Amino acid sequence: MKNEQELKDIVKEKYTAIAAQPIEQNQASCCGAGGCSTEVYNIMSDDYTQLKGYNSDADLGLGCGLPTQFAKIKAGDTVVDLGSGAGNDCFVARAETGETGKVIGIDFTPAMLEKAKENAAKLGYTNVQFREGDIENMPLASNVADVVVSNCVLNLVPNKDGVFKEIFRVLKPGGHFSISDVVLVGQLPDALRKDAEMYAGCVSGAIQKQVYLELISNNGFDHIIIQKEKAIVIPDDILKNYLGEQELVDFKNGTTGIFSITVYAEKPAAKTCCTPGGGCC
What we know:
This protein is α/β, with parallel strands linked by helices and 281 residues long. It has one domain: Rossmann fold (3-Layer(aba) Sandwich). It has helices at residues 4-18, 23-27, 67-70, 88-97, 110-123, 160-170, 190-193, 196-200, 209-218, 236-239, 245-253; strands at 78-82, 102-107, 128-132, 145-151, 171-185, 207-208, 222-231, 257-266. Strands 1, 2, 3, 4, 5, 6, 7 and 8 form an eight-stranded mixed sheet that branches. Strand 1 (78-82), helix 4 and strand 2 (102-107) form a beta-alpha-beta unit. It is globular, with a radius of gyration of 19 Å. It starts with a helix and ends in a 15-residue tail after the last strand.
């Protein structure tokens, strides 16, 4: 596998191309990474169309869950979307936080940001903004967000620990996140694990489910809950690009599982010096 900067460059290149693709082409690929399947598979994404605030122009079919549906967003909240793409989750979040709230999308692909800004302008939203930046070093002050959401993005980042540290920093005390991501149980075959296309396609960048949850806990979050989990099945016509016949049989009959999970966790509320019945410091 390539180094961190090379991986980021690959992801940026792929998602620049994806910004110009129709949703049908993205859904026929590995998380939108390319036309690697000969049939139309909705491999990872869930159906947003019934959610309030949904906008078809912003839906590129790149997600692996519906984090905004589970994010417990309230009117007036400030919501930050990591890897905001064309703005899909931002617009759904805006429907929840309303006119009195604020939604900030962060993405490091200029083509995606341009598409998102165009969509926001067409919708006339003045409280949704998009910023260029790396989610390992967010262009945000500390303690500004009530809610952080993200959809199938952290698996694209080599330094996932750094992202969770940044999420903790930008959340207000007592704030929370709801993140959909791809995780593993068991080991991927080397041919999949080392392939750049599979990385950009949200597969080889996935880490072990238990390690993912430990990263969240180790960065200070509590009340960690898996809100939704579903198995991801990679079609044979994709796998055959990487695995021989026997390797394919072994993989399909093995114990490796690829899952989409939506995880909720909270940043602990600020501690006070007052204790019940003890007066105040």
